[in-house]
Amino acid sequence: MWSSWSPLRRLQRIAVSASRPAAAGNNNYIGGMQRREQSALAHRVYITRKVPPEGLEIVRRCGRVKFELWDSDDPVPRDELLKKVKGVDGLLCMLTEKVDAELLDAAGPNLKVLSTMSVGFDHLCLDELKKRGIRVGYTPDVLTDAVAELTVALLLATSRRLIEAAHEAKTGGWGTWRTLWLCGYELANSTVGILGLGRIGVAIAERLKPFKVKKFLYTDVAPRPQLAEMINAEYVSLEELAKQSDFLAACCALTPETQGICNRKLFSQMKKNAIFINTSRGGIVNQEDLYEALSAGQIAAAGLDVTTPEPLPTDHPLFKLKNCVILPHIASASYTTRNAMSALAANNLLAGLRGEPMPKELEL
User: What integer is the mean pLDDT of 304-312?
Assistant: First the structure.
């Protein structure tokens, strides 16, 4: 935390120096002294990726932070990251950086603040961070609209077979009109199930309601009556969610309890014409079980914005299925949202370094 009397002390020193007879190079001496003091006061920060301009500008404008940036769209190599974090006071990272005991040991005891430009935090070892007294900021809320929009877009692209249709049009498959060619499934009069009802789940339902959805169901670790009331959703068990849903959207966080929760058992309980959508985390889905369900016609189709691993190898069996639409984790990829995420991450970081409450702090 910065001392409130430090600026006054610098001004006093400058005033004393200025009251002495001017000497050649005295101004240079004063300027050099100021720069040395500012450098001593500056917090060292490492930023693990090229971040959108709004966030970077917030950090740049703060005169009391000296930061180094991995200036690339690709993740910083692990070896490089372990070198660069040594002695830093703050770290601004992405969901691609695994923050574990190894990294925290490499950073050392100066590290007091970690800000992740993500709403998910499964890449962070929370126990280690808590044990070392490191505060954590994250970026919920600002990406809710973008993720909800993309989820609806993916649902429609999957259920109405848009990727298949575009491919047929481009490659000469578009012949005479045929009665059942490229038919899909409508939202009107359907039942939509939401696995994990939070901000994003509510926002998805709000956007789907105008499509004349008949009923919204949800399941979670416990009923969430206040959120459910907003969309007139009914709480059911996971089994009932699978059995009744025409469209099942997974919006839950990745936790030990949700790891692989979408598996052979769940898919076997779903309708044969059901559409499965995942825009949360790849780890909640057993992809081998999903492949079997799709290839055997146990469910109609799936749309995935997240996979395990990421990127998913191009020779993965899921890519070979026409009834599986896979996107490269772009749910929050709008200019507005990514800038808002970077600004929030930067403000979390700076507030933490000042010892002040963060705009969005993760309670450990």
Answer: 97
